Amino acid sequence: MPSVLPIVQPAPILQPRTDAAFDEKLAGLGIELRSTTIDTLQVNLGKLCNQACKHCHVDASPTRTEVMTRETAESVVDAVRRFRIPTLDITGGAPELNPFFRYLVTEAQALGAHIIVRHNLTVMFQPGQESLPEFFRDQHVEVVSSLPYFLEEQTDSQRGHGVFSQSIEALRRLNAVGYGIAGSGLTLNLVYNPVGAFLPPSQNSIESDFKRELMDRHGIAFDHLYTITNMPISRFLDYLRRSGNEERYMRKLLDAFNPATLDGLMCRRLVSVDWTGKLYDCDFNQMLELNVAAELPQTIADFDPEKLARRRIMTGRHCFGCTAGSGSSCGGAVAVSS
Amino acid sequence: MAYYEEDDLQRFSEIAKHRPDLFEKFMAWYQACQEDGALTRREKALIGLAVAHAVQCPYCIDAFSQSCLEAGSNMEQMTEAIHLASAIRGGASLIHGLQAHNSVNKVSM
């Protein structure tokens, strides 16, 4: 249950460096976290990005060189074909910078998969990427884009100087080809994440603000806003430590643990694939190199839904990020705010 | 011993030690006041932030600053709330100037 009163909750014993803590929490509730189905393959095409956001759990940047090969992309397409995967969720880095991005989208779309691209907006202004809005439209891609706030100061603070103004221009271009426009059939969802060491607000509430402010200030429309909690890993964990906020943030996540989020956790419905083809329970585990359980298929070439669909989920202390308050997933909050 | 230790924020529930029944009643009231109702949680968090400044409680300022952020408020909105609280405090002092006027007038020819 989210609390606006963290100061008056009984203080838990904080053991932020104990990876077993999340499992212990679930065990105390008599729960073993297992997947329930596989309706999504979430594929990370690599760590290369034109941005270097302060909170990025991938540690992505323009200097990273890890990108998926054609051979691995073909294995992904093969898995979509053989097992009729309903949804292919493509992320990065900036996945569009992978030379095989359009191949992957086109092939999977032709197989009937629903394609989601986690698009950072500004990549549209990189050389050779100008036609992305039309490409997305033609491939019926669902676009999911990060915009941490509807004001420039907060957005640029997290994502880099000048990102907000470029993002607004990119959103205008997406609107211009129909994205976010009622009746177009083209879905444009935005992602809010806190610009700092605090939990996201109610998704419904902040979505209303974004819709009003982006329309009034910039004439921009979109479909839904997803609220996502910052995970205490990678670059964001570095920030927490440098700023002296790690203990307080972890306590906040622990205090806000909400069992009602467990049913909607993304790890229960997807398999995550990294740029080398290895399999994980989620994109966060991927960054921690916490592979799917050892007895399971380990790569996309060996993908087998029969073995993976009811698998035991590998967890760590970062999992408290997905279970805090209204919960957090690639599709936003997973439990109704109390 | 220093006054206003930051860590005391996490120890508030220790106040329950001698009269847990009273603290329990306080907590139920305090939390219920902040839930969505005729006013939203965000509006209530902004009121809380303003009052925290008016009563100049550092614990409350810290807690309600976080509450405002987690309710989706931004610094512009929070600063407006703080200005209003401060202006009311200033106005409350200033209107007492009439007391001074009245006092002076009473003894003046």
What can you see in these coordinates?
The complex is a heterodimer of chains A (338) and B (109). Chain A is α/β, with parallel strands linked by helices. Helix content of chain A is 31%, strand content 10%. Chain A has 11 helices and 8 strands. Chain A has helices spanning 21-28, 70-83, 101-110, 132-138, 152-159, 163-176, 203-218, 234-242, 246-255, 283-287, 305-308, and strands at 40-44, 87-91, 114-118, 142-146, 188-192, 225-227, 270-273, 279-280. An 8-stranded mixed beta sheet of chain A has the order 6-5-4-3-2-1-7-8. In chain A, helix 2 (70-83) runs parallel beside helix 3. Chain A is globular, with a radius of gyration of 19 Å. Mean pLDDT of chain A is 92; it is low at 1-16. By secondary structure, chain B is an all-alpha fold. Chain B has helices spanning 20-32, 41-54, 58-70, 75-95, 97-106. In chain B, helix 2 (41-54) packs across helix 4 (75-95). Chain B starts with 19 loop residues before the first helix and ends with a helix. Classes of the chains: A alpha/beta (338), B mainly alpha (109). Chain A binds chain B through residues 2, 4-11, 149, 151, 154, 194, 196, 198-202, 205-206, 209, 251, and chain B through 9-13, 27, 30-31, 34, 40-42, 45, 59, 62-63, 66-67, 69-72, 74, 76.
